[in-house]
Each structure stands twice: as structure tokens, then as C-alpha cells.
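It is worth pausing here to work through a concrete case rather than discussing structure prediction in the abstract. The textbook approach is simple: state the sequence, then state the predicted structure, then interpret. We follow exactly that order.
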Amino acid sequence: MAISYLGPEGTFTHAAALKVAVAGPDGTAPDLVPLGLVTDVYDQVDRGNSDFGLVAIESSVEGYVVPSLDSLAAAANVVAVDEVFVEISFDAFARPGSSGEFTSVTSHPHGLAQCQNFIVARGLATVAASSNAAACRDVEVGQIALGPSICGDLYGLTRLAAGVQDFSGARTRFLLIAARDRAQAHLAAVSAGQASPLGLSMTADMRWHTMVAITPTVTGPGVLARITAEFGSHGV
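Step two, the predicted structure:
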């Protein structure tokens, strides 16, 4: 069994994948496959090359992860079957032996947004990366990388400071995605009080949620008010 996720190793998505990739009764744990883009994760699940995918969907600080939300809304054969939460904390790293003044900082755009106080106080220019772990892997001399604590050991970096995020207690919600037929089999088993055929660390008493994507056919002033008024009129 394989679970694909936004890599490289050390991303918060990797941490979320480790939470669900527990060993089964036979002692075998799913393989974790790092990919370069969120859209790649959806594509591999849709094509059947990965049994499951793990994607970030919402940050408690920055809100929804738009590329992932767009991919989920557009997917014809991929649905979410579970959710996982990961506490978010950023450490500041540099290449070993770095000396002199740092001029820039790199991280995923959400990471940069969550560490603004640290960045502004040092007058650093920002460089966006495809993921926090990629920023740590590719950090240059004279540059600071912001990422999960595990990245220090993974990429042989020097930790300059720990917990540099603006707000403590932040967390990100991740969705475990699967092809539609696998999701239907899981739902049927859970509804019948049976073990999930997915073989992952899911609970039989989990509450199911529905996400609704709305694409207005007419835009302009008041479109959001009209949509929300419809929900209100139906008691939602």
C-alpha cells in the first residue's frame, strides 16, 4: 500500500502521513511516496498509482490551501475519506558554518506568512519555496530557512532559533484522499460497524462531513450575499 504526499521528506504533510501510516496486523506499514506538487498527489491517486494521498486543506492561521481545494473540487474520481490534524511550529535554520549577515529567508508562502515578526525584525527579503522542507533542503549560504524541527536533522542544518512562528497553537488540517470506489467501500464498512478495508488508523465512530463547492454563474457585487442568503433561508 502506498500513500503519496507533498514532499520532500520533512514537510508537515509528511508528519501527517506518518500519523496514518501505522503498521497493520501483519506488521507492514504503508509506503510513503513524496511528490513535487499537490496536483501530483491528486493525479497519482486518480490514476491508481497511489492507494491514498495526504493533502493540506486548511491552516488555522492562513485559511484554506487554495491549490488543494481547487484540485479536490475539480476531481471527478477522488474524494476525502478522513482528516488529520498537525500542530504547526517553525524553526529557523542555516547552512552549517554560515557566518556574516543573513539577507533573505525562504519557506512555503504559508510559512513565511506565519513568521512575519521574525522576518520583519531582521529585515529579510522573502523567497517562496514549494514546501517548507524544500526550503530547508535547498537553503543557500546567507539565507535562513523556516521549517519543521525535523528538517534540521534530515538536511544537516544548524538551528538558529526554535518556535519562530507569530502565534502558538496553530495547526493544519489534512485530508486523506482516495479513489471513489475505495471511499465507498470504506463508508459501507464503517456504517456496518466493520473494520475499514483501507487498513489505516481510522476510527469506526468518525463523523462524516460534506464539503460543498459553489461556482457562481453570475458575478458582481452582492454575489456572496446572495449565496449565503440561500443557506440561511434553508437553516444551514
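Step three, interpretation. Residues 180-191 form the longest helix (12 residues). The chain has a mean pLDDT of 86.
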